[in-house]
């Protein structure tokens, strides 16, 4: 439909209904208009009105059923599908859809019975439908399984196995069913051994085999002695059967300890080292949760490096006599590469940088080395060096999209948005620039860019990027619409049900959470200081006034060129629109003219910089929409409830703020620094609004009861002191939270709060090892001292202390910053490759 004539279409539909209220056709058309605009609730109402007039209209019933499953109106979907089946009982898709409806509604027995009834109606399955029939058998077994009818599902699979074409799917389903029957563990073991013979690197098959043999721990990571012995015997056996399987060698590292672990790890890492596989550290990183295994891996790699430097070969494996192991030509490089990541992980930044420098010396043309160097520099707080290393890695392989993305991320985090966009645009279509990244739903780019704009306080542009991510997830949900009929027609029933369940948890994805969290923070800033967004022009004028005459002249020239460019783009767009209108007119006259995709007219963005988004009348109302979605789908993440609390507290919704506090307590406990701050702030707000709440006795009673329960009879200052005594030694952030709340409750106690951080929480002599600190935490404490507590002297002293611990930090002006400059080394390769814009090379001298 032509967007310009959409309102005219609605008006005609309304006039049609007004002229004939009992016309099912008019109501159906009205519903189709709403469906086209994705207003499904209104479309469903229109379809139901049409069905009141014509109850057996198949077309309307089909459209209604698709909308009901799209909106997860399962009970309505069951009712509609029952009606359709009654109207056309011979139609296969009606039986299948009827079964799916009852399956999703929890009526497993009825769904299985419907599938059996339809199967019995078929006299003979034609060869062309053999695979569809096979899928229906497996789906019926799944329905029986989820309905708790394990024996029936097994018997059905056994009697129908000759008709099932998906042999792997059959084995997986039988294994899953057998595991649910304690008396069938031997049969389950046999099934999973068959599956391992097909794919010995599938971790799910290994888990199923261990479960069948009762070798899975009751608690995570805690096996009995008997289980450990059984696991060792099992994987010794599997290692002989599948000597080339990586999983068979890797899994024992999870349960082996002490000397057995060291020997197994030694044998495992050599293959990666000799073959030069960069992912070794990523593979073993999960083991670092155990300090003993972390230290053992570090010692092992150091021992291998010493042997390699001394003898030129790796030492023999334990309990194996003979000459040292032969090594690959770059074994030393990959050991150093691992050690660089190992030292970075345990907080030994100096050793990590030394190791990565040796890697550069071994092979200065290996991109992976510079990627690790960039990561180490980022963790150390040297963002300039992180950018230089990431851009160097990107310049060594211009066709590697991962390296390009890493360089763009580093640039965004340093605040160089324009350079980051130029970097990311290398992989977009020619001429399409950054719009291509949005069309490709490149969410990491939009989130990083949005956060960079937040740091610049350009909130409109930030919202433009972040809300684009939110829109992607709306599109993901909309994309399932066409599959409701397609999957039933193609009989991919198990995949269809899996897709529906995935869509139900779609908004739990971390990309959605990160984008929504950042957008909520922007709305909170807009609510706190709306003038800063509304008076952006005044702020720009004030910034211009600080420039020298020459700088101001250059800036005005730049803006003039941008205005001219925008004017030309607008004229080009108008010309393209005119040409498109002419082409449309010719097509109507019977002379079709095919347009290429690149020349097709695209609707111009009316708000490219998000200025209208930043001028929203009620920022908190917009934030609430995101909060509701996060509470429903990301309630297991603390940040959701922290932001929900901020929004509801500002809106004066104390009960909802209390709900956020209680859920935060459930997620992270009262010992978490952020949760502690929420508790105190809520109790303080409840006391401040006590008179207003008294007008609602029930609300007042609930709040008073919860406050008394949390505080356990203490006043807020005593509660805060108890938290400091109990948790102050756990981390820097715990002490900072206690200090912040001390100043919050009594502004006169700010000097004392500063001393809580500087004396009890100081880096030097404060009881905290430097390895236990994170650069981001130290930066947050500095901002707390400077902004919240307003103590410039304390912030300066903290910065001096941090500069000794975070010696590479740009924020703390550490003495050992890297000052990387790869621009000279990159000049020649860029010319040889003939790539003019391979990278606007980074020279980051301080």
From TrEMBL:
TPR repeat spans: 24-57
Chain spans, region Disordered: 555-610
Pfam family, one: TPR_2
Biased segments, Basic and acidic residues type: 563-592
Superkingdom assignment: Eukaryota
InterPro entries in the record: NatA_aux_su, TPR-like_helical_dom_sf, TPR_2, TPR_rpt
Keywords: Repeat, TPR repeat
Name this protein carries in UniProt: N-terminal acetyltransferase A, auxiliary subunit
Species this chain originates from: Coccomyxa subellipsoidea
């Amino acid at each position: 439909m032509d967007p310009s004539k959409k309102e005219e279409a609605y008006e005609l539909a309304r006039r049609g209904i007004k002229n004939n209220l009992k016309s099912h056709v008019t109501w159906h058309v009205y519903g189709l208009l709403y469906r086209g605009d994705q207003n499904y609730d209104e479309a469903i109402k229109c379809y139901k009105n049409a069905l009141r007039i014509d109850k057996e209209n198949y077309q309307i019933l089909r459209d209604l059923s698709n909308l009901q499953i799209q909106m997860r109106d399962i009970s309505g979907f069951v009712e509609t599908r029952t009606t359709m089946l009654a109207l056309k009982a011979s139609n296969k898709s009606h039986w299948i859809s009827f079964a799916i409806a009852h399956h999703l509604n929890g009526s497993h027995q009825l769904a299985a019975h419907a599938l059996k009834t339809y199967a019995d109606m078929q006299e003979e399955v034609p060869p062309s439908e053999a695979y569809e029939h096979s899928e229906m058998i497996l789906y019926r077994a799944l329905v029986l399984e989820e309905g708790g009818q394990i024996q029936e599902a097994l018997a059905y699979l056994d009697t129908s196995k000759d008709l099932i074409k998906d042999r792997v799917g059959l084995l997986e389903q039988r294994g899953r069913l057998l595991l649910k029957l304690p008396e069938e563990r031997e049969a389950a073991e046999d099934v999973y051994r068959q599956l391992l013979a097909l794919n010995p690197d599938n971790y799910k098959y290994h888990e199923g085999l261990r479960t069948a043999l009762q070798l899975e721990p009751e608690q995570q990571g805690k096996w009995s002695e008997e289980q450990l012995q059984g696991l060792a015997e099992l994987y010794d056996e599997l290692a002989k059967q599948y000597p080339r399987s990586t999983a068979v060698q890797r899994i024992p590292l999870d349960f082996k300890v002490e000397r057995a672990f060291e020997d197994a790890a030694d044998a495992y890492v050599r293959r990666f080292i000799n073959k030069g596989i960069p992912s070794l550290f990523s593979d073993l990183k999960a083991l670092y949760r155990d300090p003993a295994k972390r230290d053992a891996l570090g010692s092992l790699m150091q021992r291998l490096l010493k042997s390699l430097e001394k003898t030129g070969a790796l030492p023999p494996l334990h309990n194996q006599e003979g000459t040292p192991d032969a090594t690959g030509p770059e074994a030393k490089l990959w050991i150093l590469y691992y050690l660089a990541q190992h030292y970075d992980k345990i907080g030994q930044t100096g050793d990590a940088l030394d190791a990565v420098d040796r890697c550069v010396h071994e092979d200065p043309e290996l991109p992976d080395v510079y990627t690790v160097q960039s990561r180490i520099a980022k963790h150390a707080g040297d963002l300039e060096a992180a950018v230089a290393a990431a851009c160097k890695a990107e310049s060594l392989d211009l066709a590697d999209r991962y390296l390009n993305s890493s360089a763009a991320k580093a640039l965004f985090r340093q605040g160089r948005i324009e350079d980051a966009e130029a970097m990311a645009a290398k992989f977009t279509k020619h001429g399409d620039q950054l719009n291509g990244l949005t069309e490709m739903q490149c969410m990491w780019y939009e989130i990083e860019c949005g956060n960079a704009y937040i740091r610049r306080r350009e909130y409109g542009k930030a919202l433009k990027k972040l809300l684009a991510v939110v829109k992607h997830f709306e599109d993901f949900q909309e994309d399932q619409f066409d599959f409701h009929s397609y999957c039933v027609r193609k009989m991919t029933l198990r995949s269809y049900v899996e897709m529906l369940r995935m869509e139900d948890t779609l908004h739990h994805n971390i990309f959605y959470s990160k984008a929504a969290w950042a957008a909520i923070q922007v709305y909170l800033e807009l609510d706190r200081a709306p003038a800063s967004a509304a008076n952006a022009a005044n702020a720009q004028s004030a910034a211009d006034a600080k420039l020298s005459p020459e700088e101001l002249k250059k800036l005005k020239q730049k803006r003039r060129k941008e205005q001219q460019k925008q004017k030309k783009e607008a004229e080009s767009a108008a010309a393209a629109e005119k040409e498109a209108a002419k082409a449309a007119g010719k097509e109507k006259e019977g002379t079709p003219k095919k347009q290429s995709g690149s020349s097709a007219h695209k609707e111009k963005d009316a708000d490219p910089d998000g200025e209208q988004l930043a001028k929203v009348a009620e920022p908190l109302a917009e934030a609430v929409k995101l909060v509701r979605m996060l509470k429903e789908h990301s309630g297991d993440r603390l940040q959701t409830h922290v932001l929900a609390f901020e929004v509801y507290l500002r809106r004066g919704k104390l009960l909802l703020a209390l709900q956020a506090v209680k859920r935060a307590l459930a997620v992270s406990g009262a010992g978490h620094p952020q949760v502690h701050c929420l508790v105190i702030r809520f109790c303080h707000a409840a006391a401040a609004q006590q008179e207003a709440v008294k007008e609602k006795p029930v609300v007042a009673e609930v709040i008073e009861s919860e406050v008394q329960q949390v505080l356990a009879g203490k006043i807020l200052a005593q509660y805060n002191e108890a938290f400091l005594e109990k948790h102050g030694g756990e981390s820097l952030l715990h002490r900072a939270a206690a200090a912040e709340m001390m100043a919050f409750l009594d502004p006169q106690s700010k000097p004392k709060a500063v001393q809580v951080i500087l004396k009890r929480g100081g880096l030097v002599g404060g009881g905290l090892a430097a390895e236990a600190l994170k650069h981001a935490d130290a930066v947050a404490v500095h901002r707390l001292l400077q902004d919240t507590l307003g103590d410039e002297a304390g912030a300066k002293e903290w910065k001096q202390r941090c500069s000794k611990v975070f010696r590479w930090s740009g924020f703390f002006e550490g003495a050992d910053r890297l000052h990387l400059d790869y621009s000279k080394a990159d000049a020649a390769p860029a010319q040889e490759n003939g790539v003019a814009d391979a990278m606007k090379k980074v020279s980051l001298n301080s």
